[in-house]
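Many introductory courses stop at the sequence. We go one step further.
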Amino acid sequence: MLTLHFEHWPKISKSLEVPATSLYDNLKVSASRYPEHTAIFYYGSTLTYQQLDDEVNALAGYLQQKLGVQTGEKVLLFMQNSPQFVIGYYAILRANAVVVPINPMLVAEELEFYVRDCEIKTVLLGQELYDRVRPLVEKTTLENLLIAAYSDYKGEGFEALLPKEVEADRAVFSEPNHYLWNEAISANLIPSAHTATGDDLTCLPYTSGTTGLPKGCMHTNRTINANTVGAFHWSSSTANAMHLMTLPLFHVTGMVHSMHMPIFSGGTMVVMTRWNRDAAVQLIKNLGCTHWVAIATMIVDFLANPNLKAEDISSLVSISGGGAALPEAVGEKLFQLTGLRFVEGYGLSETIAQTHFNPPDRPKMQCLGIPSFDVDARIIDASTGKELGVGEVGEIIVNGPQVMVGYYNRDDENRSAFIEMDGKKFFRTGDIGRYDEEGYFFMVDRVKRMINASGFKVWPTEVESYLYKHPAIQQACVVGVPDPRRGETVKAFVILNEGYEGKITEDEIIEWSKQHMAAYKYPRMIEFRKDFPMTSSGKILWRTLQDEEKKKAGVH
């Protein structure tokens, strides 16, 4: 087991006992400890911890008594960030059932896969997503639709900054098996005893399916609590912390860091349904937000706001995140403005967020961090399985308390996803990385993303990090495109910073790149874009851009 990083470990224990209780128990305890403390702030309205727990129990009773949800049954949660997402998630847990959180950007055809894979009978959904769900009632196992209007929970004072989904009045539904959220809560039905324990299956987040069909990652109360409690200790959070919630909650990073961890600590969740940089500034300034977990694309957009002032966001004590490395130049700009270093972490759906964290008082830029509590992380040669050492590039493998039990209904995938080493079972991440002499891990790239240019390996993430140093570049995405001579060549899609449009050419950026990168590595082609295709969790869909290029070249 790698121990180089212990020298730079924060002043806390290196090991962590994971609670044997359920995730719902975390809410129950916080509601007992801090009944009148604000749990949720939502566009001008608040819910205390007592109110949150009361609504969770009422909804759990409705799920069991009215909709017939059974212990261990999988329930679809198909919503944007909202008080109802939090209440719905914990109500499913309270009912001893399993949460299946799904990306609210999916359309009916995509959604059908998840309903069939889990044999879903009941869905909790935002009313704006109704038209995507309704077609599945006749053709799948889906029976019950519990429909929420976000406007039921909004307050006043944010009218100009409200997303349209939050402004919309509650819709009326008259079809059979259509149930309204507010009626479910006001029925105030009593749930049966909460019996879930640490090892019971509790959540099935799905992988994005970029390398094939999406796969459900089987997580127990124990695996999720490992990262919930780990995040709490690592971030030095308290019950008085104000957590700005901007990452989507269906995604594991937002789920753990912006929902489970604040609930465990009794902190306040400041919920944003849609990302809006002006609303984010207003919320930080007015409420004194202390903790913000974000992704690089949000930070880039936030800092590009011409009206942003340092004093408006001075309450922040921690800005962290993952998903993709924050460009060095952006991290420096953030530091100059706030005095805070962006603290990056690394993890996957299969590990319910982090396996690695940067130490908050000693982070490194564009770095995954060091292995988290009780995590054994190594680098291996992907083809031979041989363990590699300091500075050697290979596949990252992890063993730890947060690693999923396995993929749901995917026996073949489970056999190839794990590897035995020194009597331990390691998950193969499919990510290529290395670690330095201090035990800090660095991403090189995804296995699938490597560009082979004239026999040279080019890692797009590395090229992007160089491009971000150019003052004109706000965002960059690098892909391999077919080339008759080199096999593949490097192309960069670029979004320019304000004020640079028309003042810099593609050729000038290529020339600049030549000066800063090896000859085989620099982009031969630049294309300016106004925006990029993105996932709802804010990651750039590089594969979509690459597929466009292949199509142009007639390659399939």
